Model the fold of this input.
Amino acid sequence: MTDYAEVIERIYREVTPYWGAGKVADYIPALAQVDPRQLGIVVDTLDLNTCKVGDADVPFSVQSISKVFTLTMVVRLIGEELWKSVGREPSGNPFNSLVQLEYEQGLPRNPFINAGALVVTDRLISLYPRPKEALIDFVRSLCGTDDIYYDHHVAKSERLHADRNMALAYFIKSFGNIHNDVETVIDVYCHQCALAMSCTDLARSFLLFANRGVNPLNGEQVLTESQTKRIGALMATCGFYDESGDFAYRVGLPGKSGVGGGIVAYMPGKLSMAVWSPELNSYGNSLIGIEAFERFTTDIRSSIF
Ligand code: GLU
Done:
């Protein structure tokens, strides 16, 4: 049996020399203030064995990783209906691009670019009377801890610099694809980006996908097997901004990243893994995170391909 603890400890030593090669996100001041030299790695298996190294229990801003949670909450309630409003193809454009939306008539390419995520958040607001509370309760139920919170400092900073997301939301609304008040959509969106979670929490929360849609903590079937496959397919094709193809090529796992420097991915039927290191590469993905994931699947000689 693979000794995951030994593997991630070795990887930790191998990737720390890359400190300084990337750049911390600076589009909002709250993220620019994060100490760049931090690295956590966690592997969690379906039998709930956790191996961790480094800053594994330090909470950080999950940013776009939250798009997977909101998508899951919406898909579990309305299923295929969502795909009338959001596409399922990689965009080939930056995550916050406006151009594609115009010629595609307000129908965002996929739920992981900002345009698509804003539509998903809009549906979340329509479906859940208290969406922010519902989101945090949902994530807590996946992590088995109440120690998950919104970082209000980040949420505020996010809101102060949300001009482009506001523009996206108004533009989509002009096509009738956002139903709620744009201010409300942006408020919930800024909060979901500001969810603070550690690698330990993130890895645990993604066991849901490794476990065919069943929360391994309580046996609840959160997603059907088919919904789990579909969300996994979206992560594999669109989960890493414009670097999704390269992540599939180098790592070979479905997952999601965020500009806070977190990456979480999973191996169906086996395990989940989270890495956090705040310095990003030019695509907005954690530079050390990708190095660590590539070494991991190479080392254990396993991927979805
Ligand atoms: N809060 C970010 C934004 O919408 C999300 C960034 C990300 O992780 O992709 O600008």
